[in-house]
Amino acid sequence: MRRPIRTLASTLAVIGLLAGCAPVATTAPTPGEAPAAPPARGPFVAAANPLAVEAGLRVLNAGGSAVDAAVAIQAVLGLVEPQSSGLGGGAFMMHFDAATGDITAYDGRETAPASATPELFFENGRPLNFRDAVLSGRSTGAPGAVPMLAQAQKDHGRLPWSELFADAERLARDGFVVSPRLAGMISSSAPQAATPDARAYFTRPDGQPYQAGDTLRNPAYAETVSAIARDGAAALQTGRIAREIVQAVRRDPRPGALTEADIAGYEPLERGALCRPYRVYVVCVPPPPSSGLALLQLLAMAEKTPDIQRGPNSPEAWVAFGRLQKLMYADRDRYVGDPAFARVPVQGLLDDGYVASRAALVPGLRGAPEAGNPPGGVFTGADATREPAGTSHFVVVDAQGNAVSMTTTVESIFGSGRMAGGFFLNNQLTDFSLTPTDAQGRPAANAVAAGKRPRSSMSPVIVLDRQGRFVAALGSPGGNSILAYNAKALIGVLDWGLPLQQAFDLPNLVVRGESVGADTALFDPAVRDALAEAGMALRPNASETSGLHGAVWRNGRWDGGADTRREGVARTQ
């Protein structure tokens, strides 16, 4: 496993050089002022389902670490929120070590099979339509969430791995109450909800689909988590469960070529976190293939955009926010991919001069901007990636102050709609560009390749002050909209001084090229008019709605938040 860890001290030293000054003190009164002593201490959990939160708190109260609790939370979420994440999916985790100050990014993104080619989703010389690609066996990559959690727990766990799955196994065997959101997904028009596997799982003995309030049991899932508890990630990557995954992938229509060797050979990566200063804070995200880089670029441009400071009731601030998104997405879509296969100009996209040149476009920007030309950038082909929704985010802080911010996914709703071992398989490979080159023949940075990890919008965040103390952790599902949702929340808290729940409750605005999606009814008429005048007329958001979850440590108390658009909760006990 690759293990490039940077201590926080070295990270802050680099940031001091980047900012051109010594670390900034946090005693001056500013909106969303960074917290003073005492340092953050848990227990704290925010996640998308109360049953998962209970499982995480149970582990923390038994003396477990933040990573121990993350294992338990993911195991339960995969059962009670299978439309969003699961054992057959992938994830990115940010981990803050309170004792050492280290921030680590764990990459559990799925990988393409060894047999994959750039034309993976071609048929008769043309790319498949997106629906057919998702439902095909070709869409499933080698699962990464469980191996990633196993590695992180090996590094930071305190309880035995075998003790972390009790809640998931009990709920699977005895049954759990179907939530309104899961019931809505079961009865939705999503094609994955109509696959043979989904229908068999979600149909009651009387022939009707499960409804909210029904009790749903999953004995196969109970057997799977029992095996993982006993044998670790190897139980999923080898043996019976791996064979079942391959069998499901190789069924019609359009069988895939994922092999047991692909699954067994999967390795999570431990990467140095990507951290940059913002105001009096330090914002840390995973590096590519996560798109956290783009979130940092938007924040860097926002610092050079005075209208952002006008606050949440200002039409000018929302117009500026929409324009910043256009610039961010244009660059992200052009340049970000798996750094093992594509030259991603990380430093160039965050270069102060380049950021200033992009921010200078904000006041008069209309229409869809072209990607810029950052230092070190190789002008790749135009991207044809679509990234639908099926994701979850949670935050954990333990009694020692260690924190986890983790975004986890099966990619689309119920992934590919295929099941093995009681869980849904991911359709993560449709996060690649379905066409590998543009009209000029230039290769896309996010084209398919054997062993490659598809680009992801998942960007779990940890925020520190300039002394390296924990300030906040947050993140969201939402497909491509994740970046807009996370940026809204960060600006709401760090710039506008809002309590975290108020920041989450702000209307969503997602502007990518000519596409505009929003919580139209929540915007003040003056803001709607200003956005329309700027060429960003509001339309209902067609992508997955936000599911922000997070925590801010303020003056020795937790300011937690759980997006009211979902079913989650934030709890300290």
In words, what does this structure look like?
This protein is α+β, with helices and mostly antiparallel strands. Helices cover 33% and strands 16% of the residues. The chain has helices spanning 8-19, 50-61, 66-80, 130-135, 145-156, 166-174, 180-186, 196-202, 219-231, 234-237, 239-249, 260-264, 292-303, 315-335, 346-350, 352-359, 482-495, 500-505, 525-533, and strands at 44-47, 90-96, 103-108, 122-123, 126-127, 176-177, 215-216, 269-272, 274-278, 281-285, 391-397, 403-409, 419-420, 423-424, 461-465, 470-475, 509-512, 515-518, 549-554, 557-562, 569-571. The strands form six sheets. A seven-stranded antiparallel sheet has the order 8-3-2-12-11-1-21, covered by helices on one side. The protein has a six-stranded antiparallel sheet with strand order 9-10-15-16-19-20. Strands 4-5 form a two-stranded antiparallel sheet. A hairpin with a 2-residue loop joins β9 and β10 (281-285). α13 crosses α16 (352-359). The longest helix has 21 residues, at 315-335.
